[in-house]
Structure formats: structure tokens, C-alpha cells
Design brief:
422 residues, mainly alpha, 21 helices, 2 strands
Length: 422
């Protein structure tokens, strides 16, 4: 067993840990995560505009009449999330290179805005289309944010900057150091967008269309579910690794559904936004460990398992399962790794088909991840009570799958306690 554990740690865990710390992936992750407050707050205005209440109620009628005004905060937050993501990516990547992070964030935003060609509207003048600043513009946002900061870094490292005397305040000096990199980025983006007339968003959309379609399929759901639990099995935060790559897709699906709701479309276009994973698959945390916690509370015979079950139940209700991951542990545990990987795959299949055939509404609200799953699922689907039923069914299935594996491990723990005279 020790040789197997050493092999996993040296050949799998360490390389994956290094991948998780790759600066560009970290910058993408930090950029998207930094926008979550705006996405969450903005998405709740969708609930206010389309409350999950009977149509005859006065509140529902009032919301329908004032939907355009209620949706303004949504338009300024979640609807233009790429703007916030660009600044976050630029800031994080510049900070990792030890160059001015504020300038990095600003350069990334400028690069993103210059990918969009303004339109001329009578009486308004130049108007910037906002649609490319939403989820559908995330791929372009990631590309131009990284490239613009890389230009900034190269200029800084090769002293292609304007240096002012030491007596000048640091804030002013940093601004002038960014002058040449900003000029280079603006000129390059202007040549691409204005002179050459290239619509980067349309180009990237065509290139990534197969990926977007595949990510919204059952296979596209199962792959990240498997990879996240696989990485977690070796103590690597799977959501951080996989999410850095997959989250732009998830946000495209989420904003696509949200915009469909805001536009009055009845059939939402996407099945697999991130809330599908959060509320129907990761119940209790990665690996759907809420079922394991229930099994611990009911069936544990060893003293350690009984005590641990009582200690972790409260965090698990709020989807915090690090105490379970490292307390049992599940990490590098050949017995519990099996249900840890199998359970979310089964729940993913059930949840995907339940959503695709209309048993449960697709998700389009970004509810805070620490909510208990039934509440989070209800809010994420815009008030679909059937989502609560699906969560309960999935919890039951999770418990059923974990039970036999836990009994084997609990028996082993009980024998160890007897040997130690506990």
C-alpha cells in the first residue's frame, strides 16, 4: 500500500499540483472568481424581475410591468461580466510577474474594449454593443487579457518604459512606466479591429463552437466531474484545476440562460451551467459527500467515525467538505476513492437527463455556494420546486452508493481501535 501511495504522489499528485499552480491558469481562475460577487448580485435581480410566484399575485404583476427597470442592475453586472473578468485576469497575472497589477488590470480592460467596434445610432452617437461584454465574450477576454499583460511584462523586463526621477511620486511613476505598453496594446488592437476589420468575437465563436456544444452534452458534463474528483483523490483542489479551463464555458451557458430569461424566452438554451454541478452533483461538496456524512451519522461503529460524523455534518450542509476529505480521509484512500468518483458521475447522468427532458428547469441563477443544496437548487432554477425533489433523490442515491464502501472502511477502523485498546 505504501509503494502504491508513493507512486501516486510522485507520478500523479506532484505533476497535477504543479499544473494547478501554473500562473496563467491561476490568473484565469482569479479573474473569473473576482467577478462572482457581481454575477451573484446581478443574477438575483433576474429573480426580482421574474419572481417564482403565481402570475395573479400583485408582486408578480408589478415586477412584469417594471421588468426593464429591475433588470438594469443585472445589465450592469452579470450581463457585462467579461469587463470585470478582464480586470481580474490582468491584475492577477501582472501581480504574479511582480509588475504593477493595477496597470495590468487596466491594460486588459482596454484591450477587451478595443475588440468591439462601436455602432452609430442617431441622436446617441457612438454606441458600444454590450453583448460581447457578457459570457459569450469570455474566450476573447481571456486571450486579450493574457496577451496584453505579456506585452506589459516584456516591456518592463526589457526596460521599454518611460522612467521618471526618483523624486516623482510612485503612483505617477508607475503610470508613466505603463505608457509605452499601453500604446503598443492600443495600436495592435486598433489595427486588428479597426484597420483590418477583424471581429475577434465572431472568429473565436466559430473556432470554439464545437467545444461549446460538446461542453453542454452529457459527455461534456461527465468529463469535468470525473477530472475534479480524480484530482481531489490525490489532495489537489480539482475545481481549481478543471474550473480554470471549464469555467468560461460554464459562464457562457449561465449568461446564455439568464439572457434568455430576461428576453422572455421559454425554452432555455443550455443544460450545463455551473449551478447544475453545484446544486445537483456537488451536494455537500466535491464527490457528493453529503451521502457519506449521512452514512457516518447512522451506521458508524468505530469511535472515530462516530465523532467525525458529528463534527462534519454542519459544514457539509453548507457544502464545505474539506473536513471530510482530509478527516476520514478520502484523499489517497483506495476504499473511499471509488464511491467518491462513482457517486457524482451517477448524479450527473440523472441530473442531466432530468433537466434535458424537462423534469427540472435549467439553472440560470448564481446562488451563493454555501447555501444548503435544496435552497440553492430552488433559487438557481428560478423557483422550480421540482429542483428540491431532485436534490433529495440525489442525496438518497449518494447515501446508497457510499454505504457499502463506508462499512468496509469503518470495519477496518474498528479493528484498529480494538488493537490499540480504545
Amino acid at each position: 500500500m505504501s509503494k502504491f501511495t508513493d507512486f501516486l504522489e510522485q507520478k500523479v499528485s506532484n505533476p497535477m499540483a504543479r499544473l494547478a499552480e501554473q500562473r496563467h491558469l491561476l490568473a484565469i481562475r482569479d479573474g473569473v472568481v473576482s467577478s462572482l460577487p457581481f454575477i451573484i448580485v446581478g443574477s438575483f435581480f433576474l429573480i426580482l424581475a421574474f419572481p417564482p410566484l403565481p402570475e395573479k399575485w400583485a408582486l408578480t404583476q408589478w415586477a412584469t410591468e417594471h421588468a426593464a427597470e429591475i433588470l438594469i442592475p443585472y445589465r450592469m453586472t452579470m450581463f457585462i461580466m467579461s469587463l470585470y473578468v478582464a480586470f481580474g485576469i490582468g491584475y492577477s497575472l501582472a501581480n504574479s510577474y511582480k509588475v504593477d497589477p493595477l496597470s495590468g488590470g487596466q491594460i486588459a480592460v482596454a484591450a477587451l474594449l478595443l475588440t468591439i467596434t462601436p455602432s452609430v445610432v442617431e441622436e446617441l452617437g457612438f454606441v458600444l454593443p454590450m453583448s460581447y461584454l457578457g459570457g459569450q465574450g469570455l474566450f476573447v477576454t481571456i486571450i486579450v487579457s493574457i496577451l496584453s499583460v505579456e506585452i506589459f511584462r516584456v516591456c518592463k523586463q526589457r526596460n521599454i518604459t518611460i522612467k521618471l526621477p526618483s523624486q516623482v511620486p510612485a503612483s505617477v511613476s508607475r503610470s508613466f512606466e505603463a505608457l509605452i505598453p499601453v500604446a503598443i496594446v492600443i495600436v495592435i488592437m486598433t489595427i486588428i479591429t479597426v484597420v483590418m476589420g477583424v471581429n475577434l468575437h465572431n472568429l473565436v465563436t466559430k473556432i470554439t463552437a464545437p467545444l461549446v456544444t460538446a461542453g453542454d452534452s452529457l459527455f461534456g458534463v461527465l468529463v469535468p466531474v470525473f477530472l475534479i474528483t480524480f484530482f481531489w483523490s490525490f489532495g489537489i483542489h480539482g475545481v481549481s484545476v478543471v474550473g480554470s479551463v471549464a469555467r468560461p464555458l460554464w459562464e457562457i451557458y449561465l449568461t446564455g440562460n439568464a439572457e434568455a430569461v430576461a428576453s422572455g424566452v421559454e425554452k432555455l438554451p443550455h443544460i450545463a451551467p455551473e449551478p447544475l454541478y453545484q446544486w445537483f452533483i456537488w451536494i455537500g461538496g466535491s464527490g457528493s459527500t453529503i451521502g457519506l456524512v449521512i452514512v457516518m451519522l447512522i451506521f458508524a461503529k468505530s469511535k472515530y467515525m462516530k465523532q467525525l460524523g458529528k463534527a462534519v455534518v454542519a459544514p457539509s450542509i453548507f457544502n464545505i467538505n474539506e473536513p471530510v476529505m482530509f478527516g476520514l480521509p478520502i484523499v489517497l484512500n483506495p476504499i473511499l476513492i471509488i464511491p467518491f468518483i462513482i457517486t457524482p458521475l451517477v448524479l450527473a447522468i440523472i441530473s442531466y437527463f432530468a433537466t434535458s427532458i424537462g423534469l427540472v428547469s435549467p439553472t440560470y441563477i448564481k446562488a451563493p455556494w454555501t447555501l444548503p443544496a435544496p435552497i440553492g437548487a430552488y433559487l438557481a432554477t428560478g423557483g422550480d420546486w421540482r429542483a428540491i425533489i431532485l436534490v433529495i433523490v440525489n442525496i438518497f442515491i449518494s447515501t446508497f452508493i457510499y454505504l457499502p464502501f463506508f462499512k468496509v472502511y469503518d470495519k477496518k477502523m474498528l479493528e484498529m481501535e480494538k488493537e490499540n485498546g480504545e
